[in-house]
Amino acid sequence: MSEMGRSIPGGPPSGAVAAKPERRAKGKTVARRIWLASRQSPIATIGGIIVAFWIACALFAPWIAPYPPNKLDALLIAYPYPSAQHWLGVDNLGRDILSRIIWGARTVLTVAPVAVLGAASLGIVLGLLAGYRGGWIDALIMRIGDTLLAFPRIILYLIIIARFGASALNIILVITFTAAPIIARIVRGVTLDVRNRDYVSAARMRGESTFYIMFAEILPNARGPLTVDLFLRLGYTTVTIGALGFLGVGLPPPDPDWGGMVKETYGMIFIWPHMTLFPAAAISSLVIGFNFLATGLQEMKRDV
Amino acid sequence: MLRYTAKQLLYMAATLLVVSFLVFALNELTPIDVARKLLGPYATQDQVDTLYKQMGLDRSLLARYGEYLGNALRGDFGVSILYSRPVAEVLWDRLGNTLLLAAICFAVIVPFSVLLGVIAGMRERSFIDRAVSVFASVCASIPEFALGVFLLAIFVVELGILPGISPLSTSGGWPIWSQFVLPVAVVTLYDGGYLISMIRTSMVEVMRQPFIRTATLKGMPFSDVVVKHALRNALVTPFTVILLQLNYLVSGLVVVEMVFAYPGFGRMMLEAALNKDIALIEAGALCAVSVTMLTQIVGDFGYMALDPRIRV
To answer: What are phi and psi of A96, to 5 degrees?
Structure first.
C-alpha cells in the first residue's frame, strides 16, 4: 500500500500499472506465500477462511456430520428446535439440519467448481481463437456469444431445464455455456492487446505452433483478470445453483442442496423459522467468502 | 447516427429471428408431448394421435415454424395451455406488473447506489470507503432468496409490520403500497450492492486523475471538486452497467417474485417452464431478449450524451 496515495486525492496512482505478471520468488513455500498474502489483505483472509471452512465440511462430510443427511425421524418433529442432540434443529421431515447443511456443502462445492472450470476451459479456447485468428472466426464466435448473452440468464436456465429436466449435469452444462462467452470476451481482449507484441512475433518466427503461441505466450497474460473473474464466477454460480434449487428446478431431492432446503421449509417460516434461516445463512456465507476473496485479489493486484 | 440506429435495429431483428427459431426448435423437437399434455394422462393413444394430426404437428419443423412466425408477426402467439387464455393477454398482464415493480426498484436503486458509491470512492481507503465497500460486497453476495428470507423473518415474522406476500390484491388486509416494500428492499440491496462497487471503483479511478489533483491544489473546496469535476466523469463507465440493470429488473426477478408470490413476468416463465406451456415460453423468451437488446441500444445513445468524445 503506498502511503502517498492517501494524502492527496488523485496523487500518484498507487501502482496502477501491473503490466507484467510478476515473477514468483523461488524458494517461497506455499504456506509462506499464503501468510504473506493474508497480511496484505484482511478481506481476502476472511474470505479464504470462510471458503476453507466449507471446503473442509465438503471433504469430511461423512466423518463430521452427526447424522445421515436423509434420515427421517417423524418423532423429532414434536420439538424441531435446536437442542443438544440436534444443534441446528431438525427440518419438517425430522432430518438433522446440521448434517444436511454439511452434506449440502459437498453438493454445491462439487457442482459450482466443475461448472466454472468447464466455462473457463471453453471460454479460454474460444477467446484465444477469436482474438488470435481474427477474421470470420472472431466474428462468428463473438456473434454466437452475444446471442447467448442476450438471453436473460435465469430465463435461459428455465427454458433449457424445462426441456431437458433438472439434473446436476444439465445445471453444469447450462452454466458452462452461459458463462463461457463472458470469459471468452475477457481472454479475447487480452489476446488482441498482446498478439502483435515482439515476443509473440518472435515465437511465430521461431516456427512455434499456433497452439503453443496461444497457450504458452498469450494466455499467461490473462492470468490476473481471469483469476479474479473465476472467484467472482464461483460466487455467482453458487447463487445460481441456490436460486435454481429454491425455484424447484435444481438438483433433484432428497439429497441436500441449500437452495432446495430453503424451498422445502419456506412455507413454515412463521412457525419454524430456523429451518429456513440456517441453510439461507450457509449459502450466503459461502458466496460472501468467494466475493471477499475476489475483492482481496483485486486489491492485491493493484498494490503489487 | 441514423445509419447506426438502423443497423442496430436490423441486427436486433436478426437476433430475434435466430432466438425464436432456436427456442421453437428446442421445444418442438418432440411435439407429441404437446398433444399428450393438452389431453392429460388419461387420454387414449388414439385421441392423442388425432389431436396431434388436427394441430398439424405431423408437418415438418420448418413448416410449423413458418406458420408460427407468420402468426407471431400479426401479434398472435397462440394460446397458453396453462392459463387457457391467449398468450399475448397473459404476457401483457404479467409484463405490466413486472414493469411496475422494476420501475419502482430502478427509481430507488440508482440514487441509493450513486450516493453511496460516490461517498465511498471520493476518499479511497478511508473508514467510510471501507465500511461502504464491505456493506456493498456483503449485500451483493447474499442470494435474493436468502435475503428475502432474512428480511421476512425480521419484518414479518418478528415485527409483523409488513405483509409476507405481495399478490397485488387487498384481500389479505394489507394496502397495495406495503406489498412493494419488501420486494423492492431485496432487489435494492442485492442489485445496489453490485452497483455501489462499480460506481465506487470508477470514482476512485477518477479521483486519481491529474485534473482532480490540480483542482485540489489550486484550493478548490473538496465538495466542489467532487460535485463539479469528478461526478460526471465517474458516471460515464457505470452508466451502461446501470442501464443493464433494467434487463435484470425486467426478466431477472423470478426469484424475488417467487419469494413474495408477486404475479410478475419471471414467475409466469417459471410456471410456464414447469408446466411445459410452450407457446408461453416462446413468447416470453422473445420478450425478454427484446428488452435486453433495446436497453443496449438506449445505452449506446445515453453513453454518447454523457461523453461527447464518444461517437458512433
So the answer is: -70, 120
What CA–CA distance (Å, rounded) separates B270 from A135?
A: 40
Interface test with A, best of B123, B145, B222, B254 (most A CBs within 10 A): B145
How many CA within 13 A on the CB side of residue B70? 6
Name the pTM for this structure: 0.83
Question: Which residues does A213 contact at the CB level (< 8 Å), separation at least 6?
Answer: A132, A200, A203, A204
Task: Tell me which amino acid residue A104 is.
Answer: G
Cα–Cα distance, A66 to A95 (Å, whole number):
11
Angstrom CA distances, A127 to A168, A184, B214, stand at 26, 4, 41
Are A154 and B122 a contacting pair at CB < 8 A?
no
> Cell numbers 460535485 correspond to what residue?
B227
C-alpha cell of residue B212: 482532480
Q: Is beta strand B85-86 parallel, antiparallel or unpaired with respect to B79-80?
A: antiparallel
3-state secondary structure A202-229: HHHHCCCCHHHHHHHHHHHHHHHHHHHH
pLDDT digits (tens, 9 = 90+) for B222-254: 888 888 888 888 888 788 788 878 878 887 788
Q: Which residues pair with A96 in a beta bridge?
A: A90
Which chain B residue is nearest to residue A12, measuring alpha carbons? B208
Buried b (16+ CB within 10 A) or exposed e, B2-33: eeeeeebeeebeebbeebbeebbebbbeebee
B290 CB within 8 Å of a chain A CB:
no
For residues B213 and A5, give the distance between their C-alpha atoms in angstroms, rounded to a whole number. 11
**CA B103/CA A244 separation, integer angstroms:** 25
Q: Are A294 and B177 in contact (CB under 8 A)?
A: no
Which has more confidence, B170 or A294?
A294
Alpha-carbon gap, residue B113 to B245, rounded angstroms: 12
Which long-range contacts link B65-71 to residues 24+ away (Cβ below 8 Å)?
B65/B21, B65/B24, B65/B25, B65/B28, B68/B20, B68/B24, B68/B282, B69/B20
Mean pLDDT within A18-39: 61
Write out the DSSP string of B212-263: HHHHHHTT--HHHIIIIIIHHHHHHHHHHHHHHHHHHHHHSTHHHHHHTT--
For the ranges A152-166, A282-296, B61-75, B77-91, the one whose mean pLDDT is highest: A282-296
Task: Map residue A196 onto helix, strand or coil.
Answer: coil
CB B238 within 8 Å of CB B202: yes
DSSP class per residue in B161-194: -S-S---S-GGGS--HHHHHHHHHHHHHHHHHHH
Nearest CA to A251 out of A183, A149, A151, A175 is that of A175
CB contacts < 8 A, A to B, total 161
B216/A8 touch (CB, cutoff 8 Å), yes or no = yes
CA-nearest of A149, A211, A151 to A185 is A149
| Residue A154 in grid coordinates | 435465469
Average pLDDT (B128-145) is: 91
